[in-house]
Q: What sequence folds into this?
């Protein structure tokens, strides 16, 4: 590390820098380069898993901004993603270009998110959780019954995205689009967290009274957190709609909200890297379980059906083990691993 | 020390994950090899709910599909080629269904046996794009319109056709001079809502008087709130469009409050489990089915009994069996004409007229412009704790009903 045994900062600005060392910058650069090469090497199934990860990363980082950074728990995130999906789908169906439609979807989700974020002024913790759960249920009802917009029980057909006449109609093309948007979302959240607004979010999470005394406008900042978080959720929804090419009310149910909450808890609350890790972990887990049951069924065909039942159990067990052994999430474990190797072999 | 332990635990977890992943990859490679070695095998993917909320009916359905494939293989296969069926669990989760589908699409399966509404609909566009014929057990009417779902097929009459046929049967057998009164109970869920507009419209057309409607959740544990207002309106018929647990609740609560009417349940609302759950409360209830029940006197039952080794199976098993038989027939027709590709299988299926799945279900036909497999439905009545065949009711293939 530049011949030093630690990092020293002479200004707050330097400490808040995204890349504190050139080494980090190089590593991230290599990682991005690796990602860019991935679709050329991997088969289309693995690329489709990467695509699902990208969408999950956007959703997770947006929820982490609201819940992890600002401390406002939301059980309605799945529905906010749905609002974005329907809005973006309707926009492209009416001839709006894809990027504008994506932003419109985000905007619609932001408005709805801010509306349902209003109770956060009075409600905290478990009470806010129930209020946002109500948002989830109300929006699900709207998805199912506002037939002229959502297609009701018939759902909505969407075309693959097109940018300046270029159609993203296969997994590989889609991957670059999704990766670009996911990278943008990560950059936005990382940078928001470095501003005074980001620090205001954190102060609200840590203790609302101190924040208010320090001059933070609680209501304004809570609404802003709901708005920005829902905006990104809406973008994730818009991408999901155009990726699957079909959306229906069942896709944005409470299970989706809970799985996003699980992602940020597993990844690490309040951490951008954690959101990415959580999203990757939660997307990979069912795939790994499916692949392993598949290979085991090859060896012992008779236990196939029992394994399927076990799978759900394994899923729950993994989550529980994480909460017990990694309460601070994968991001914290990653930090510890880095610290361990930084001092290797002279760990103290 | 503690930290060391945690690090060790984490290391172990990672190693386990890596092992699982590697194991998975190993398995896939072996699969590829197996497929390559067999050469002529026809790979069929299965995306069925084996562990999710509808697995109580999904699991027997999957067994039926597997039995169908085994039956085809035991009887000469598809012009000598064997069907290799790979059923994966989607847990009724769209994302998992999507990634299983992508895997099958990459492995270039000839066709897919799917299952539930949410996953099937989410994959409609993908199946059309990748040209993979997709059979489902989601019988939503809009999947029968090739304009929106060109590669989707199923072997039962769609939900709307089913309810129309049921209404027609009741109207034909209505002897009184006054108008028959009907009420609708259904869950506020895409699957429950889908046939309701068609049902109400056709009921009015036939001269039924609709006296009430209410929603009963799929997970309801009590339905008296919805049933009490209905009791005063004295409906002659009540449509129940749910699944067996909510149907059992409705039937038991109706008996409790003394609501007497003829109940008609849809295809997923009544099976052998309903009788166990509702006891004598379900006595006399009618249901719409698209396949024979186990042990019924039809030509194909011998094959079903043989494949299931004489172990009684649910009607969903028979329906899965029929779905595989029909797919097999499509494959056979396509293989007779040339190489098996998505479009050739689709074309063969669309040329299939009045294919009789050995009496296990009404005859199946598909047209290039109309994927309604049949306009007929089986009516069953629960009497003395058994599903008893009552009649087969048919409708005209009206163009204006397509997809609605």
A:
């Amino acid at each position: 590390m530049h011949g030093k045994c630690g990092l020293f900062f002479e200004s707050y600005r330097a400490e808040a820098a995204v890349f504190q060392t050139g080494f980090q910058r190089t590593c991230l650069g290599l990682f991005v380069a690796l990602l860019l090469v991935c679709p050329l090497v991997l088969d289309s199934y693995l690329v489709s898993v990467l695509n699902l990860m990208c969408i999950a990363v956007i959703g997770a980082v947006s929820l982490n901004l609201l819940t992890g950074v600002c401390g406002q728990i939301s059980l309605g995130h799945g529905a906010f993603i749905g609002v974005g999906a329907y809005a973006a789908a309707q926009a492209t169906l009416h001839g709006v270009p894809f990027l504008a439609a994506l932003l419109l979807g985000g905007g619609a989700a932001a408005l709805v998110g801010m509306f349902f974020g209003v109770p956060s002024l009075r409600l905290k913790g478990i009470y806010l959780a129930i209020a946002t759960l109500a948002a989830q249920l109300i929006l699900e009802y709207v998805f199912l019954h506002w037939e002229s917009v959502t297609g009701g029980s018939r759902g909505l057909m969407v075309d693959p995205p097109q940018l300046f006449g270029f159609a993203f109609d296969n997994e590989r093309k889609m991957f670059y689009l999704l990766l670009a948007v996911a990278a943008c979302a990560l950059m936005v959240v990382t940078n928001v967290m470095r501003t005074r607004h980001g620090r205001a979010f954190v102060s609200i999470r840590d203790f609302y009274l101190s924040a208010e005394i320090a001059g933070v406008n609680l209501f304004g900042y809570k609404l802003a957190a709901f708005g920005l978080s829902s905006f990104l959720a809406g973008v994730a929804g818009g991408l999901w709609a155009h990726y699957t090419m079909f959306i229906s009310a069942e896709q944005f149910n409470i299970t989706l909200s809970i799985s996003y909450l699980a992602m940020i808890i597993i990844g690490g609350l309040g951490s951008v890297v954690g959101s990415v890790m959580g999203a990757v972990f939660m997307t990979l887990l069912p795939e790994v379980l499916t692949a392993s049951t598949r290979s085991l069924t090859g060896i012992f065909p008779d236990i196939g059906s029992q394994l399927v039942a076990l799978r759900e159990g394994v899923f729950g067990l993994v989550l529980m083990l994480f909460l017990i052994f990694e309460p601070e999430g994968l991001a914290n474990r990653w930090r510890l691993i880095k610290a361990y190797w930084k001092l290797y072999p002279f760990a103290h | 020390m503690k930290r060391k332990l945690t690090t060790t635990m984490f290391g172990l977890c990672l190693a386990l994950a890596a092992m699982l992943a590697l194991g998975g990859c190993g398995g896939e490679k072996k699969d590829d090899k197996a497929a390559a070695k067999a050469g002529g095998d026809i790979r069929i993917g299965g995306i069925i709910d084996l562990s999710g909320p509808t697995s109580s009916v999904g699991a027997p359905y999957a067994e039926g599909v597997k039995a169908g494939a085994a039956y085809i293989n035991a009887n000469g296969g598809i012009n000598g080629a064997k069907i290799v069926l790979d059923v994966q669990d989607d847990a009724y989760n769209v994302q998992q269904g999507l990634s299983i589908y992508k895997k099958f699409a990459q492995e270039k399966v000839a066709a897919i046996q799917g299952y539930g509404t949410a996953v099937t609909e989410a994959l409609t566009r993908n199946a059309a794009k990748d040209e993979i014929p997709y059979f489902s057990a989601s019988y939503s009417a809009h999947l029968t319109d090739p304009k929106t779902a060109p590669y989707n097929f199923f072997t039962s009459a769609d939900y709307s056709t089913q309810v129309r046929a049921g209404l027609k049967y009741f109207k034909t057998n209505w002897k009184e001079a006054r108008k028959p009164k009907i009420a609708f109970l259904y869950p506020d869920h895409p699957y429950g809502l889908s046939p309701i507009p068609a049902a109400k419209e056709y009921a009015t057309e036939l001269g039924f008087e609709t006296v009430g409607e209410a929603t009963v959740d799929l997970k309801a544990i009590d339905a008296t709130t919805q049933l009490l207002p209905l009791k005063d309106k004295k409906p002659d018929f009540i449509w129940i469009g749910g699944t067996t647990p909510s149907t059992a609740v409705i039937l038991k609560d109706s008996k409790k409050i003394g609501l007497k009417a003829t109940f008609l349940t849809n295809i997923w609302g009544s099976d052998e489990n309903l009788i166990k759950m509702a006891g004598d409360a379900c006595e006399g209830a009618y249901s719409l089915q698209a396949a024979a029940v186990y042990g019924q006197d039809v030509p194909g039952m011998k094959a079903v009994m043989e494949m299931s080794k004489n172990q009684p199976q649910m009607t969903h098993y028979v329906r899965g069996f029929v779905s595989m038989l029909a797919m097999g027939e499509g494959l056979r027709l396509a293989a007779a004409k040339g190489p098996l590709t998505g479009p050739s299988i689709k074309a063969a299926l669309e040329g299939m007229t009045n294919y009789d799945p050995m009496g296990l279900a009404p005859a199946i036909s598909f047209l290039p412009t109309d994927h309604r497999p049949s306009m007929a439905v089986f009516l069953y009545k629960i009497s003395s704790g058994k599903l008893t065949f009552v009649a087969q009711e048919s409708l005209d293939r009206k163009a204006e009903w397509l997809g609605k």
